[in-house]
Design goal:
alpha/beta; three-stranded antiparallel sheet; 15 helices; 27% helix; disordered N terminus; TAT_signal; Alpha/beta hydrolase domain-containing protein; signal
Length: 510
């Protein structure tokens, strides 16, 4: 095993990622004082939005949801939200107390996708805290978990929880209100200090609707909260500080958070006042599933904690914070609403392509595990810690972690980091892949831009025909690896079938 020197231009990855995770936090305006104690979340008023000038919601799916047996609709929720402040000392164990510190009127929105046929609904609603790192609402975990959500009959609800998504920021699109004033002009967001309670009230609206039912009468058996990237930082704080007083959600997916949680105040500078590390509290009666990619691990490893009956953590080998799958699934939807103003990876011409690893397969499995766990089922299996520094000397792949067939029967180097020279700010999130083709690619220079061999001495890429002399040999190894991952609980059987089918159609072997 060799230690690859990834501490040159790639050393900015953790810093840049942290800036992206925190980038859309806004300062909180003054608010009315609130009572000293908090109760369970209020049930907001639900209304139907006007058609607006576009005639569809922001982030409306570009794909035909009807072909999957799904419908899409949008609702407004409004009421009085509460902000919170720290109560007592906050320490790295996540057992954080809060007090109510202010109230303010708000009006935000829910984007709802649910089975059209009630018989296809599985009783579980996934509520995603929409990500605003791009200064507008995005749904990365819907895209990561799209296949599992639609084939298993989940309802999915995206919540515009943060101020920049509603009010706008530095981006070309000035939030929902700027994108379609006729539809969203009545929305009111008082600041990110209130985002936590807005998210609580969104969940409560699904349980006890006060107005039109966003789920069309579908009963809520299990309500799961979910957030990815910056939203996962807020989700960490929500789990530790707000869930104990709101008691709205039955389980949590925290995907790609960093070592430090988002501030309860909603003020960016207050990140410096948050415990470092910010671990997940282990005394809740509801479960939390933390999933990290290779991109995330360098900045989050200090927050590692043992798995318990209420907290499980996976670190995924060969994955990236965003990847080719998420780009392919989500890009048309983003462009349908945002057009040329859509956030772009903007990676430099001639640089390595995006990571196309197994992140979505792992997220499918994680979701199914979490749903069962939240209903009182078995705790998900554990995974090994991932090392992004110690890498296999032949393949360039990270060692340890949850390892799916893409990395146990490899055909390319997959990494969560990349050289971002000459690239846009979001490029760093997409990791890289390097096909094994005899170092024939423009980036195969045995330097920091070469995913498979970023340091001297130069090492040639593996030769696929030597690794897999025949098609049958390759497919057989993939089938065996897939079954091992299924047996370990890290891969779903139907996804294993898809992986084997892709191997049969790949042309690899011989």
């Amino acid at each position: 095993m060799r230690m690859l020197a990834r501490l040159t231009r790639r050393s900015v990855t953790a810093t840049a990622l942290g800036a992206l995770l925190c980038g859309a936090l806004l300062g909180t305006p003054p608010a009315a004082p609130a009572a000293a104690s908090s109760a369970a979340a209020a049930s907001p008023t639900i209304t139907v939005p006007p058609a607006g000038s576009h005639g569809f919601p922001f982030l409306a799916a570009a794909e035909d949801l009807g072909s999957f047996g799904y419908t899409e609709s949008e609702y407004f929720i409004s009421g009085t939200a509460t902000s919170y402040a720290k109560s007592g000392l906050w320490t790295p164990d996540g057992r954080w107390n809060v007090r109510a510190s202010g109230t303010a009127a708000y009006k935000s929105r829910l984007l709802v996708r649910r089975p059209a046929d009630p018989a296809k609904y599985n009783g579980t609603v996934v509520v995603e805290w929409l990500n605003v790192s791009g200064r507008l609402d995005l749904s990365p975990d819907y895209w990561f978990m799209r296949d599992e959500l639609l084939r298993q009959g989940y309802a999915w609800v995206g919540v515009s929880a943060q101020a920049v998504g509603v009010n706008g920021g530095l981006g070309e699109i000035k939030g929902l209100k700027g994108w379609d004033p006729a539809r969203y002009g009545s929305l009111v967001h008082p600041g990110d200090a209130f985002a936590y309670d807005i998210f609580s009230q969104a969940g409560q609206a699904l349980r006890t609707p006060n107005g039109p039912d966003p789920l069309g009468g579908l009963p809520v058996r299990t309500l799961l909260a979910d957030g990815e990237s910056q939203s996962a930082g807020f989700m960490t704080t929500y789990v530790n500080a707000v869930q104990p007083v709101s008691r709205v959600y039955d389980g949590f997916m925290v995907h790609s958070n960093s070592a430090v949680a988002a501030p309860i105040s909603g003020v960016l500078a207050d990140t410096l006042l948050m415990p470092n590390p910010s671990r997940i509290r282990t005394d809740l009666s509801v479960p939390t599933f933390v999933v990290l990619t290779e991109t995330d691990v360098p900045g989050a490893a200090i927050a590692r904690q043992p798995d318990t009956n209420s907290v499980v953590r996976w670190e995924l080998a060969g994955t990236a914070h965003a990847d080719q799958w998420v780009y392919d699934v989500g890009n048309a939807t983003v462009r349908k609403s945002a057009g040329s103003a859509a956030p772009s990876p903007d990676c430099a011409a001639g640089s390595a392509p995006f990571n196309d690893g197994p992140g979505h397969w792992a997220m499918n499995a994680a979701l199914r595990h979490l749903a069962g766990w939240a209903r009182g089922g078995a705790r998900p299996p554990s995974g090994q810690p991932l090392s992004t520094v110690l890498r296999d000397p032949v393949t360039g792949l990270a060692t340890g972690g949850v390892r799916l067939p893409d990395v146990t029967v490899p055909t390319r180097t997959l990494t969560g980091s990349r050289d971002t020279t000459g690239s846009g700010v979001f490029c760093v999130l997409y990791g890289a892949r390097d096909p094994w083709n005899g170092d024939a690619d423009a980036w195969d220079r045995h330097d920091d831009g070469d995913p498979s061999d970023p340091s001297f001495p130069a090492t040639a890429e593996p030769v696929l025909s030597r690794l897999y002399p025949t098609r049958a040999d390759y497919v057989g190894k993939v089938r065996t690896a897939a079954q091992r991952s299924v047996d370990a609980g890290h891969l779903l059987p139907e996804d294993a079938t898809a992986i084997v089918a892709a191997a049969q159609d790949s042309g690899i072997g011989g």
